[in-house]
């Protein structure tokens, strides 16, 4: 579990994050949504230590990450997996070598053990047979799956995903969503996903926070989001005509009253 308490972040006197408090739970896909410039990326960077909060706490299972020493933070990051928007694979390494990279850096396992672990991770994302290929030889969706395999290689307790569906077609996005959701439950990880993908929101959003101009405007689950009366949230979620129609259908179905059958 990751608990955020009264988190604030300012740049040159401008407050970008404003007193954010929330809890990201184990075994759930926790989503951060919001418009570009709302502060959600800054929030994630504060969570993983790429930025230092101006004030507030980030507690990893009760451990205050902000107050840790540099060495303690380095050790803490070994418990984190990260999936970047661009997949961020090494072009000069094979798929297998990419997945083995964090194991080579941080694991005390033998080469044989590291190779087996990497292959197990590739098997988990259905990429056995692609281990000798290079990133440039596989599709964008496969690259994202390699990135997921690499992120879970060290069996992290916390998984961070920055726009994992960026650049993918809808069908492939669903595959990535399903994979992230099942892995989160299987390994009981605390998964946090920055996303603009409304399919992700409605299908795997077990805990969602909506950031608006640097503060937490709304939080809840996907079942609640379609019926929300928060105007800023609905303006963001139902920006497209299709989603507006979906919302109207949901609202209409909830107000339908069936007449009692006549005797």
C-alpha Rg (nearest Å)? 20 Å
Q: What is the subunit arrangement here?
A: single chain
Span from first to last CA? 56 Å
Order of helices and strands: EEEHEEHEHHHEHEHEEHHH
Secondary structure: helix percent: 40-55%
Query: Based on helices, strands and strand pairing, what is the structural class?
Result: alpha/beta
The 3D shape can be described as: globular
Number of DSSP helical runs: 10
Low-confidence stretches: 259-263
Largest sheet: 6 strands, mixed
Query: Which sequence of strands runs across the widest sheet?
Result: 6-7-8-3-9-10
Secondary structure: elements and pairs:
Blueprint: E1 2-11, E2 14-24, E3 28-33, H1 40-48, E4 55-60, E5 63-64, H2 70-77, E6 80-83, H3 95-106, H4 111-124, H5 140-151, E7 158-162, H6 170-187, E8 190-194, H7 198-204, E9 207-212, E10 215-220, H8 222-225, H9 231-237, H10 241-255
Parallel strand pairs: 3-8, 3-9, 6-7, 7-8
Antiparallel strand pairs: 1-2, 1-4, 4-5, 9-10
Explain how this protein is built.
With 263 residues, the chain is an alpha/beta fold. The chain is built from ten helices and ten strands. It has helices at 40-48, 70-77, 95-106, 111-124, 140-151, 170-187, 198-204, 222-225, 231-237, 241-255, and strands spanning 2-11, 14-24, 28-33, 55-60, 63-64, 80-83, 158-162, 190-194, 207-212, 215-220. A six-stranded mixed beta sheet has the order 6-7-8-3-9-10, with helices on both faces. Strands 2-1-4-5 form a four-stranded antiparallel beta sheet, with helices on one face. A hairpin with a 2-residue loop joins strand 1 (2-11) and strand 2 (14-24). Helix 3 (95-106) packs across helix 4, helix 3 packs parallel to helix 5 (140-151) and helix 6 packs parallel to helix 7. The longest helix is centred in the last third of the chain and has 18 residues, at 170-187. Mean pLDDT is 89; it is low at 259-263.
């Amino acid at each position: 579990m990751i608990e955020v308490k009264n988190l604030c972040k300012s740049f040159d006197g401008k407050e970008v994050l404003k007193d954010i408090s929330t809890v990201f739970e184990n075994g759930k896909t926790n989503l951060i949504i919001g418009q570009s410039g709302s502060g959600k990326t800054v929030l994630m960077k504060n969570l993983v230590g790429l930025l230092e909060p101006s004030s507030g706490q980030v507690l990893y299972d009760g451990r205050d990450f902000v107050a840790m020493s540099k060495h303690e933070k380095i050790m803490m990051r070994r418990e984190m997996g990260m999936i970047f928007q661009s997949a961020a694979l090494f072009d000069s390494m094979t798929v297998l070598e990419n997945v083995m990279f964090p194991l080579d850096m941080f694991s005390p396992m033998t080469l044989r053990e590291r190779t087996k672990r990497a292959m197990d991770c590739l098997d988990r994302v259905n990429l056995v047979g692609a281990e000798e290929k290079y990133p440039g030889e596989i599709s964008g969706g496969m690259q994202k799956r390699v990135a997921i395999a690499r992120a879970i290689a060290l069996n992290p307790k916390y998984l961070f995903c920055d726009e994992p569906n960026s650049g993918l077609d809808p069908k492939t996005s669903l595959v990535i969503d399903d994979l992230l959701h099942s892995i989160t439950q299987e390994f009981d990880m605390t998964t946090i996903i920055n996303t603009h993908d409304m399919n992700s929101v409605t299908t795997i959003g077990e805990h969602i926070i909506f950031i608006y101009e640097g503060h937490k405007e709304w939080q809840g689950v996907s079942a609640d989001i379609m019926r929300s009366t928060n105007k800023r949230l609905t303006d963001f979620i139902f920006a497209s005509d299709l989603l507006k129609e979906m919302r109207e259908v949901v609202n209409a179905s909830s107000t339908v009253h069936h007449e009692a059958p006549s005797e």
